[in-house]
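User: For a benchmark we're assembling, each entry needs the component sequences followed by a predicted structure for the full assembly. Here are entry 17's components. Please fill in the structure.
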Amino acid sequence: MSENTLGAMLKEVARVEEKLLKGYQNLLEIRDVETGVTPAEVVYQEDKVKLLHYKPEVPDVCPVPLLVVYALVNRQYMMDIEEGLSLFRKLLGKGIELYVIDWGYPTKIDRYLTMEDHILGYLSNCVDFVRERSGNEKINMLGICQGGSFSVIYAALFPEKVKNLAAMVAPIDFHAGRGKGLLMDWIPLLNPDLMVDVMGNVPGEFLNLGFLWLKPFALIVDKYVGLAERLDNATTLKSFLRMENWIFDSPDQAGETFRKYVKELFRDNQLIKGEFTLGGRKVDLKKITMPVLNMFGEQDHLVPPECSRPLSDLVGSQDVTTICYPVGHIGMYVSSKAQKEMAPTLAQWLLDRAGTESPPAAEAPRVPKAAAKAKTARSQKKRKQKK
Amino acid sequence: MAEKTAAQMDFLQEWVEMQEKLWKGSMAMGQKMLSSTPFGLGERGISGFTPFDLFKGYFDLMSFWSKAMPPASVPEMPSMFPGFKEFYDTWMKSAGVKGLAGPGTWYEEFTERLKKTFGEKVGDGLGLTVFKRITSSAEIYFEVLDFWAKVLSASPDIAAGKPLPEEKVKELHDQWMRNYRSLMASLWGSAPSAEMQDLFKALSGPPEAGAESAWAVLAPMVTSMSQVPGIFQRLVKGDKAAAAELGGLFAKNYEETMGKALLAPTIGYFREFQEGVNKAIYAYGQYTNAKTAFLAFLQSTGIAAAEKVFQRFIEFKPKEITPETYKELYKLWCNTNEEVYQEVSRSQEFVALAKRMVEQGLVFRKELDEMSDHVLKFTNFPSKKDMDEIYLAIYETRRDLREARRRVTELEKQVARQKGAPNPSE
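Assistant: Structure for entry 17:
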């Protein structure tokens, strides 16, 4: 070892020490971080579910509001996590009026809440509230992840209430991702009956453990080792903490909803087989005839693109746009690529379809060039009869 | 003794400045921590606490370094220290410092003290939570660095980037596997797990006490335990089949001995309760078996990963050891393990073991709930079953109420429409 190397090593140790010390100081000063940076008003509440309203601050507002339906797993404020990384802020800036469902935190008393209660109850009531409040017969919907599955099911049952349906990283074909995403392999093997009968609600911590195990060394060790390098930067640190807060902010899953979701969708894949029923009604995806925007991440390890892509072919709509972004699951919400490309694309897609009942015939959606360049696989579905 | 060169002087000067900066930083932080303590130190019953206590380990280290840094000793160092670890060890010896075995150890002591103090004084908060996660991960990080230090110090040829002769590779490999086991133990817990060791003690207790009857029940199990050392030997070589065998062996022996006893019918006034207790203990035994098999599988996967890291390490030829080398080696370790564990996570064996562990844990909890339900039925306290019935009643009431509201709203709308509609009689 040369003298210089020895010196470099000593300096490295001291440098790390210094960073850690500075980091401790920074961390000590942070008791909590604010989440959800855009002001919102609670306009409707039912049990633990709240409907948040975000008003655009631009003169030209899309006449049809957008209802955002997030997953029951984790929390909706990921879409509004911080200034500069807020999908909500971007959409509001484009004149899209937003209503967002906050599902809340289920407690033991909610263990019997079913998928029917969530979709035919809370979600349906939120839709009706927004319809009435905005004076629209039909409103726009954006379903994200599990909320995407919920929105697709709702739109199939009540197509007369949905003007345009956007799905983001929504699992639809639950078997197509097998061998591609570990969650898709593991969840069907769970014994949901035993879990729900014993635990009531399925603890968020249990699900988190599963998420961490998807990349144990990266998520349990390397992430924090890497952070040590950035501890002395208070801004970076706060961004990290916001994300960290979100990752571990996992509500428990209402037992009966979890049971049906795992058994009938993850295990039996009933939705794409046309066998899924809700409240005694069969869910037929062909009844989704409104315009559909299907967005997913090429590198998504939670909901692999193979799970989301089939939606485009299963719906009965004449106007289907499919966009695959070169990002992962979380990247869909917060990556700079998503912020630059996905939000404007979604806003424009909605604006293009805001006025008329029929979609702009055979007109390709206006997608920023960068989105088209960056390994996107898009299809403008044109039915033969349309041609 | 060689004279100090200008470069050495610069380095020393820089070093002293750095220490001074660190010292001041530590003091400032200590003061901040004291002032942020909500109740004051005295009221918390910690007498004589000063920031120096908090940073004692750190100052000890600084003191050691200052002793170990006589300028004149610097020129000898390059020839004396082929690896980082050795460099540390020798310095520590020369400074007469005991108990600090390497970067991992001093770091652990340093952070442990900080963690403890932060936890006691500051109270919970996101910053503290993340700080704890960082220190836990950093401990693993430094374990890895220690490991590489041991490996690099094993042969100066590696550090020099020279090709190794075959016998040296074998020697290194053996040493590697020994060191790697202790590294993996820090991650997944050593095999057998602490719970398993407790179970061994609990099960082997009665025969040791000379109870003939207990021995008759436990004998087959204890006899079979003689197979365990052989299985462990295979386990540490990365034989995954051994993990499954180990789990199976425990389960088989347990069911044939203690399990049988626990599942035997009982009689008497407390029969129902006793059976509940027996079932719960039995379920715990099954859960422990499943957990041990799962952890053993993780251990053997770690050993398999070690082989892969070793292969990649042999191809890794740094020109000289620098801090960057350690970072690269850490990345090599991290990425290779991630790769191996991800592959294993897809295997049917992993899924089966994880599934069994989760399900046995749930069965254990179910038996416990049933046992406590049985006890609580003699009291005025509601049992879990009672509470579930209450939750169900509340749920059904809420659902009925929601439906009633919906119907009322519909009727109101109908009435409004009828009121607004033109009267056909007019």
